[in-house]
Design brief:
Radius of gyration: 20 Å
Order of helices and strands: EEEHHEH
Strand order of the largest sheet: 1-2
Number of strands: 4
Number of helices: 3
């Protein structure tokens, strides 16, 4: 038995569950401008003192979520939760989310 990451309900054996897999990457199309030696030293110092896991998460991260049918429908209608405080109340799908 699985638990929905959206609402916390139990997804019974045989019931359809949905997996949302998210990959977030930094935009690598940034324009690089020339930097001074002082700026370069500052950048290097920040990298040397930073935690490697934190640095990696700044440019790439992955997450997976298990959703029930109701939460999958909510997610598909408004994946970023834009709008009202409860983005699902307008479509009649309001309910607790975790």
């Amino acid at each position: 038995m699985e638990i929905c990451d959206g609402c916390g309900t139990h997804i019974q054996s045989g019931e359809t569950r949905y997996i949302v897999h998210m990959t977030i990457t930094a935009d690598d199309a940034q324009t690089v401008s020339p930097v001074t030696d002082e700026e370069m030293e500052e950048i290097i110092a920040r990298f040397e003192s930073a935690n490697s896991i934190d640095l990696e998460q700044q440019v790439y991260s992955e997450r997976s979520f298990i959703l029930c049918a109701r939460c999958k429908q909510r997610f598909m209608q408004n994946p970023l939760g834009k709008g009202s405080r409860d983005p699902f109340e307008e479509d009649g799908l309001s309910g607790p989310l975790h």
